[in-house]
Structures
1.
Amino acid sequence: MAFSLLVPASVFLLALFCRHGTALQQLTHDDGCVHMPIVHSTNVDYFSSKRGVQLQLANRSDIAYYAQLSIGTPPQPVFVQLDTGSFELWVNPDCTAVTDSDAAFCEQAGQYDTTKSSTAASLGTNRTLRYGIGTANISYFTDTITLAGSPTTLQAVQFGVATVSEDAFSGILGIGYGKGVATRYLNFVDQLRAQNATRVKAYTLALGSKDAQEGVIVFGGVDTSKFAGPLARLPVLPADQSPDGVPRFWVDMQSVSITPPPNGVGRVYEGSGMPVFLDSGSTMTLLPPNLTAAIAGNFGARTADDNGFYRIDCALARMNGTLDFAFDGVTVKVPYKELMREVPTDPPACFLGIMASEKFTLLGDTFLRSAYTVFDLETDSIWMAQATDCGSSPAALNSVQDLSSVTGACGLSDLADSASGTLVPSSDPESIDGGGAEPTRSAGSEASGTVAGSQDTGRARLTSGTSRCFGSGVGLALSLGIVLVLHIFS
Ligand SMILES: *[C@@H]1O[C@H](CO)[C@@H](O)[C@H](O)[C@H]1NC(C)=O
Ligand SMILES: *[C@@H]1O[C@H](CO)[C@@H](O)[C@H](O)[C@H]1NC(C)=O
Ligand SMILES: *[C@@H]1O[C@H](CO)[C@@H](O)[C@H](O)[C@H]1NC(C)=O
Ligand SMILES: *[C@@H]1O[C@H](CO)[C@@H](O)[C@H](O)[C@H]1NC(C)=O
Ligand SMILES: *[C@@H]1O[C@H](CO)[C@@H](O)[C@H](O)[C@H]1NC(C)=O
Ligand SMILES: *[C@@H]1O[C@H](CO)[C@@H](O)[C@H](O)[C@H]1NC(C)=O
């Protein structure tokens, strides 16, 4: 569900950093597999005409993650927020209904004009969609949709065109369950499968670390260069057994623990086993108030501010500690830096990426950046591993059964070796407050560092996206996965 932060809180001002963009993939056939080079957003050949947009969108940072869709005939490009926690696609947020800085972003995200598309058809029905943050009144239409850089054109996809919205600065691409489960019609993910753009109803989300500056979503496939080892399979809890009765990606979390920097004493949080849902549409992770308070206390924050944010020392971002989320068969270690929201105000302000909620327990972007996650809507499973990054090798799946034998191409040494503190259950933890108040980095150095650094990263990716394929080469040569690249920095 959409829980992305708007920018009302004076705390956040204009300073939220993010980059998202679009990708151009060229399919090449080699050794019986399909791999798609990724063009980085700093590739001027492709992005120069959009550079202004890139810079604007870059301000949105780790607040939310977007994909670009082209809707209609001729195609009209719009950015939509990727949301595993909702089910429907809609566009055309009311940009006059958000604050100034959000309005500027909102306009850059693009609008779709039904009257300018020869293939648009109104279904004559309306609906109100409500999110954790925001609402939209939509009218349903069908039209063709192409994915940036993909050869696939989906025909007559149903989606909403907003007539009015509140607290929404882009449209939303809900990639949760569709027809027969959460919607009465084939949603976007259903259509990819139904129109043979993918062979399986499954997709992989690897948002990427803040430093990686890019992430990837592969519809119908995996990217084995984003994790090491096997994938753990977690059953999705049926809606009737889930806390809110909604068919989201609910899984059982066994525990949350903290592994402080070397020499610190770790702690397993009491009563931290609970169902949680995976929600890319939420900037923050939401946990029960007492658990959140216990974690915040270990980060040196006693109380939340008026907006519910726990302010913490920016120096923590440089420390080699992790917050560890354990599931059956996999523990995802989230480095402090990834868990934190670093806002480049002057001086910089940092916040814990977890907020208290009585209502929801969900793992948002502050968790998902550190996880490699396959959402398998065929066998109702989440396949999960610790995220890492050793290149790019997107590959299509012929069958979701293959996920049990897919192994990450990265070495274990690619995983950040940050967990060398001792971990013991404890109810009386030492504070791990970082001490020094020196800013991690200034807004200025962040911006300039990104431009120089990301270009190199992009080149490295292009050349390393070679022949890492899995399974039998024969089937793979014919099957396609669809890859969107999310460009991110923070
Ligand atoms: C985005 O960032 C750029 C460069 O830091 C800045 O000049 C611009 O004012 C920002 N725009 C918004 C809407 O925050
Ligand atoms: C749907 O909303 C549109 C725009 O607000 C309105 O013109 C139309 O009458 C509504 N249709 C129905 C069936 O309520
Ligand atoms: C949105 O739709 C709801 C339910 O139909 C309606 O009550 C509300 O007035 C609509 N909002 C606006 C601003 O039209
Ligand atoms: C998808 O592929 C199946 C099996 O090859 C075929 O029966 C079906 O007609 C195809 N659907 C579309 C929309 O191309
Ligand atoms: C939070 O409260 C629940 C229910 O009262 C309890 O089971 C759990 O141990 C508490 N957790 C912490 C970290 O205090
Ligand atoms: C964190 O770990 C890295 C790699 O092991 C090391 O280079 C760095 O000095 C460590 N940082 C701190 C603050 O201990």
2.
Amino acid sequence: MAESDGLNGRRISGAPPGVFFMCVQCRDSRLQFPYRRYSTPGSIAINSQIILPFMTQKQACVRFYEELNDFLPASRRKKQFCHSFDGSPAIKDVIEALGVPHTEVDLILANGVSVDFSYQLQADDRIAVYPVFEALDISSLVHLREKPLRRTRFILDVHLGKTARILRMLGFDSLYRNDYDDHEIADLAETEQRIVLTRDRGLLKFKRITRGYWLRATKPRQQVAEVLSRFDLYSQIAPFHRCLNCNGLIQPVTVDRVAERLLPRTKRYYQEFFQCSSCDRVYWKGSHFTTMQQTILDLVNHNKGPLD
Ligand SMILES: [Zn+2]
């Protein structure tokens, strides 16, 4: 896809004076020095390159809403801008070419009408692109998902081990291994309907990944706070029923069944024990339990103060 406004605000050396172009819909003045390399008879030669006037390309006015702006350069955030294109590209390809992963998008309006990813961009379209709404009712419009994920399940990329452990501590089904490759993550996301959590925007461009979220925060606890808020998961928090080690479910177990794996002191001071049904790891409410309880409280109340 050709981009014609890559020289925003900069005059092309040798450009004919007084040549201005402006989007007829949004009056985007950044397009005043349009250019396009082209080898067509009758075009204008500048610095030995062949330039065609911008207006020979189709244009559409595009605006991204809310956190989708995080993916855009500052000059395009929270405002309408003009996008130039050839042919009739699918809106999904246009959105990704502009830097926004399709997994972040839940609603697209073309000229006020909701459309799906296969919609082909037309000249003079007005496009509005909205992020995934988890908490708002927009059921009268076309969501881009066939149906919402009923149970919120995650798969995290290989850099997010600590984040996965915290999500498991809160009870969320969170797959993580430090040796997953991108294709394995895409497979598991597709077959098990998992939301991909990542700091890698490239991973979210996989076609098979229909639900994904690019984490803005870089620290694990802040990332979990972000996920809780973004997907409105507070009511689904169920602490201490999932193994931090392997994501398996943990069950109460009698001390007799795990006694041989406990230190004498642990047997003496604690009466309640739990065991992972997958990896057999044993848990009890030791000093780490109090720390984890405080972490959970901090996460639930994170809007009242910053997390470290
Ligand atoms: Zn386990």
